[in-house]
Each structure stands twice: as C-alpha cells, then as structure tokens.
Specification:
single chain; 244 residues; alpha/beta; ten-stranded parallel sheet; eight-stranded mixed sheet; 20 strands; globular
Length: 244
C-alpha cells in the first residue's frame, strides 16, 4: 500500500465519480469530528476543574500535540490477486482509509474492521462481505452475504446495484443508489435502502421476535446478532439452509 494525502484521495474520487466523492465526504467529516472535536470538548470540561495556571499549561501542551496528530491515514492499494481480504489496524494506529481503483474481484471474503473505511472505484465481487467500518463503491456489489455488522455511525454506500443471497444489518446503514436484489433480508435496527427499488424474493425479517421464533439457529440477543456466532454459522452451512 502507498500512503497518499487527503487532497490526493479527493482528486482520485472526483476523477472517478462525483457521487462517490460526495458520499465519502461524510466519512471524512465523521472521522475528523470524532477524533478531534470530541476530544477538545472533553478537554475543555477537564480544564475547567483545574487551577488557571495549570489549565493554561495543559491547554498549550494539548494544542501542540493536536497539531501533530493525524486523525486518519489514507492509502491507495493496488488491485489484489488474493482470494480474500481482511482490512484491520494494529493497536496504536490511527483510523485508515484504503482506496482501491478499478474492479475488486475475490472468490473469498472481505472483512472490514471498525476503524477502516474501504473505497472501491468500480465493482466488487466476493463471497461474504462483513462491514464493521465503512464501505463505499461507485459500482455494483455482488456477494452471497452483505452483513452491516457495526452498531455505530458507519455505513455502506453502493453507487449502483446490490445483488446478494442475504443482506443483513446489525445497526448499520446500507444504501444503494440503484436496485437491491436479495433472496433474504434481516434488518432490526437501522435502514437498508435501495433508492431505485428493493426486491426480496424469500424471507424478510424486520424484528427480533419473529427471527427467534422461526429461526432459532440464528444467534440474536437484545435485537443484535452475536457476530462471531453468526459468521461461524454462515461459514459452515449455506445461507439458504437458514430459511428452508
């Protein structure tokens, strides 16, 4: 991976798709706000409890540190020949934005950790796509499972169509500018939206009670999936067997 600047990222995105560029700005603003503004608010509240001299000294030190701090790193990654991709961060690393240009075609899975924003400028094909962080693409997404696993402010944005066996969310917002076609849907906490149309051929579950009653093998507690157990089930048996 090659590190690039935020300006270079925006240039790449504008060249490929104005809509994709606009959608990604939400993620950039969220990262900057959560890492800087919230910390400043917490610091202000703390400084008010100190003696004036100590508060001034600490505030000056913090401002210098904050100038040197990077809220996120941006990388461009060459298209890969791997069968699966797992995007993660190490302890102490900042959030990462990873840009992949052109199509991303995998026979295996894509896993996106909660501190990762993955941006693909064309189509994505994979087996299972698990999004704890954020996923943006200007093209189509084709997979067996699309699982919005995060229960926070992240999102999945697809510039064209989504085609999948099962689309599910665990508090994660998912939107396609085009159509969503899925055999099955599980959505209890947030919104899954196809702006042009959404077609669910098989089972559509929109509340926890219904899911537990008819499909007790799917691990759900207090309205949320047990992610590890859910993914283990998906790995070990075909998705359609849940809804047979």
């Amino acid at each position: 991976m090659k590190k690039i600047t935020k300006t270079q990222l925006n240039h790449h995105l504008k060249t490929k798709s104005e809509k994709l560029h606009a959608a990604v700005q939400t993620a950039l603003e969220s990262l900057t706000y959560s890492q800087t503004n919230l910390n400043s608010e917490m610091l202000t509240a703390f400084l008010q409890m100190l003696e004036p001299e100590a508060a001034t000294h600490l505030s000056t030190s913090y401002q210098q540190i904050d100038k040197d701090d990077t809220t996120f790193d941006v990388f461009i990654q060459d298209n890969t020949h791997s069968s699966s991709l797992e995007f993660t961060t190490k302890e102490g690393e900042p959030n990462k934005i990873i840009l992949i240009e052109n199509d991303l075609h995998l026979s295996g899975d894509i896993f996106i950790e909660d501190r990762i924003t993955l941006i693909v400028t064309a189509n994505i094909t994979a087996k299972n796509v698990v999004v704890n962080g954020s996923l943006y693409t200007s093209g189509n997404l084709n997979c067996e499972l699309l699982f919005g696993a995060s229960s926070n402010d992240h999102e999945t944005y697809i510039g064209k169509d989504i085609s999948t066996t099962l689309i599910a969310e665990n508090g994660h917002y998912t939107v396609a500018e085009g159509n969503i076609y899925a055999q099955h849907l599980m959505s209890f906490n947030n919104t899954i939206e196809g702006k042009t149309a959404m077609t669910i051929e098989g089972v559509s579950l929109d509340n926890e009670e219904e899911a537990i009653l008819f499909y007790p093998n799917i691990p759900i507690t207090n309205g949320y999936f047990d992610e590890k157990s859910f993914l283990l089930l998906i790995k070990n048996q075909p998705i359609n067997t849940f809804f047979a």
